[in-house]
Amino acid sequence: MPTPLADVIATERLALRPLTAADTFERTVTWVHNSDLDDPTPFVTEGQLLLTTGRQFVDNAAPDAEPDFDSYVARLTSAGVAAIGFGTEVITHGVPAGLVAACSAAGLPLFEVPYRIPFIAISRLVADNEAEQARAGFDRALAAQNDIASAAVGKGRLPAAAARAAEHLDCGVWIFDADGELVSDSSEPPRGGPSGRGVAGRASASRPADAAPAIRSSVTTLLGRARRARVVEQLPGEYRVVQTLGPSGRLCGAIAWSRDTEFGALDNSVMTVLAALAEVSLEQTENLRVGHRAILEQLFQLLKDGRVDSVRRAVRVAGIELPAERFAVAALELSQTTASVRDVLERRAARAESTFFAVADGRHLLVLIDASQLRAEKRFFAANELTVGLSAVLGWSELNVAITQAVRSLEAAPAGTITEFDSLVGESFFGLLASSSVADIAHARLASVIESADGLALLRAAQVWLRHNGQWDPAARELGIHRHGLKSRMQRLADLTNLSLDTFQGRAELWAMLAAIDLGEKP
User: Fold this and answer.
1) Treating both helix axes as pointing N-terminal to C-terminal, what angle do 483-497 and 453-467 enclose, rounded to 10 degrees?
2) Where are the alpha helices (DSSP H) in 305-417?
3) Is 142 exposed, middle or buried (0-12, 13-18, 19+ CB in 10 A)?
4) Cβ neighbours, 10 Å, residue 250
5) Model pTM?
6) Which of 168, 120, 126 is nearest to 144 (CA)?
7) What is the rounded CA–CA span in Å between residue 99 and residue 86?
8) What residues form DSSP beta bridges with 329?
9) Which range among 101-105, 273-277, 509-513 has the greatest average pLDDT?
């Protein structure tokens, strides 16, 4: 961990005297080495402070010739030496003027070390500073780990832990579930966080504002491989780390970090803590989701009995929000639905922004989708080439009708397609009779007519008319109206039901529906 050269010079007990411009001392040193060799470069590394007594200038100088200070300084500069400390009154009296001039010209810091100050005192100062920084770094890392763990068990849970890690590391943190969907986004810069610096104490780093899309792509790629992995990327202006969570073949998610400075060893120790907490949290969520299946199936039976408010409160415990008032039911064949597809649908149902409900019911996997989400879910079904039957958009009082519609649509759906009930019934009512409950289909088809008193009256008039084989006069006499009035009513009914009552097929479909339902009460 580098030590500011200015701090070394400013240490009063060392009484060091700078001999070059003040701005040359605005650098750091990594270690201290002393040598009187004319060419010490094989034994020094970049960033080191070189201490010398100047013996090389006396031993190697030709009689009456000035030592080649420029070449000496050039060698040190090319090797990356950070500064020179010259010990006086050992070999020479004072610091040679030629060395001062060469260092000033090269911009290499030069300072005088008094005779009474041993070189080891400077070495110890730098070593002590490094040890102090290391201890401070470990202390910060430990404090960060404790802070993150405390946040994870508090009210904020995993998102709070991720936010604390982002503050301590001064980086963006993103946590994704097994589907690559964002669970936690701590990409905003910290506001008065614990340190505003990385745990290693480096200068404050900034977070790339546009990191999320690129990170999402990296996460999707790693999750698609289904193997445990950790990828470190150095990009222009960004250091990025993406790590999957969970064992290979059963990943539960991924976590990503990004900032504009490199992550050090102590940073990695903090990152490991958050990754472990995220993995435990996501795996626990997955276990709870699977464990809730049997309970949700029982709650679904209550839904079908009309206990909507009670079930709505109950499923919120599992993080599920039921659709509002209008929704559609999607049906999939449970035996033909892979475990991964079922997992994805259940996870989608448990997301905070979702208002739909996925549950097994007999041999079907049913998904209740809020009308506002229907378009998005249809895109999901299509993108995954799922075979789906989809009901019309109905209300909670018609849940059982919607289930029937979805199942009947599924029975007629070609593999890998979505078949919607509205289009299926619109094409042919009779095509459903062989595999359907006629009453359920009839209620669904005539629902808008049955809801009004005028509509019920029209249907009852149609019953009489069809019972008289479509003859106007006998039916009108039984109803006590003129035949033209009956014709007018049947025309209105034809418009409402989209049936052509002038044809045999239209009259037959209406007769089949009226025969299957009881008009004495609303379905």
Assistant:
1) 120
2) 308-315, 339-350, 374-383, 399-412
3) middle
4) 11
5) 0.56
6) 168
7) 10
8) 368
9) 101-105
